[in-house]
Amino acid sequence: MKQQKVLIVASIVGFIETFNKDLIEYLNNAKGCELHIACNFDYFADTDEEITKQFIKKNKSEGVYIHNIHFTRSPFSSQNYDCYKKLKAIIDENNFDLIHVHTPTVSILTRLAARTSRKKGTIVMYTCHGFHFHNASPVKNWLLYYPVERVMSRFCDYIVTINKEDYNRAKTFHAPNVRYIPGVGVDIHKISKIVVNKQAYKESIGVPRNCVLLLSVGEMIERKNHEVVIRALSKLQNPNIYYAICGKGPLREHLEKIAKELDVSDRVKFLGFRKDIPELCNTADISAFPSRIEGLGLAGIEAMAAGVPLVSSNVHGILDYVIDGKTGYALSPDDVDGFAKAIDTLANDKNMRESMRQTCINAVAPFEKENAVKVMINIYNEILK
Predict the structure, then answer these.
(1) What sequence ranges are listed for the domain Glycosyltransferase subfamily 4-like N-terminal (predicted)?
(2) Which of 9, 78, 234, 262 could form an S-S bond across to 101 if both were Cys, CB 3.0 to 4.6 Å?
(3) Distance CA 140, CA 133 (A)
């Protein structure tokens, strides 16, 4: 039987490592495919560089073909043309059975580069981790991104979505096969069973033992919208509430400046990249997840898996698991007063937080890693027979 060839494409190696590790293992080892990965293998800004390099080394040692293309996230970058040419050369030189692409800009380049191969029988699959147009997005997003995604759906055989709003919309597009998977996998059982000394862990990150810890996990970029929480914190003027942000990103200096201007810098902790997110989730009293756009949101699911109530935006994939008033509160991304009120309510009512614990864990149970991986493997088996 002929060995089947698969190409996985995404913008950066951190994305591949975070969202495709188990599926790479399956395709390369269990399925016995000749596996190729194309992405920017030199971008480590949002990963643990040492661990990511070990991930790359491991895949090389197991025979995975590595194609280093310096993709950009911006659809308007002049660099995209060179990336397109490199990618097209790889696709044209190999007779891939399946090309599986992630991330918006790269998905456009890949689907265009694979047009000739599709005519020869290559299956092209696009996993959408969140359309840029959704129930609460501005009109400009619909005008710019919706027509592009609709047209580009003609150039793939499968669209896989990770939230139900995107799934229902993708079914109106042109791709012949549309599938829904319950996220990209969170080890909910493991997170829910972690036991930490909350007071000691708070002290280890510079938060007083008996204070309320509000936690956000995510890159410091505009989409993650950390600023609204800092502004909400300043409105409360409650010295007992501390806000910790885990992650790196270009907006750190801006957020530090805002916190200083609002006189809350002593209660906003910038923790950087962390390897102990499950422990921090189990230390937090409240989690904040104010994203403007979120395909699903691993950080929100991880916090709720620890039984921590979530104060979140009411957009897109987040709505697949939050229950307003039962797992926390869901608000408009720009509603500073609403975030302040929700944080204040939860911070001052420990019994309410505790009563929400099991509801939070139950609400995210469908997104257990094992479920998500199983559904994606079934899709692979449907294509790679």
Answers:
(1) 17-182
(2) 9
(3) 9
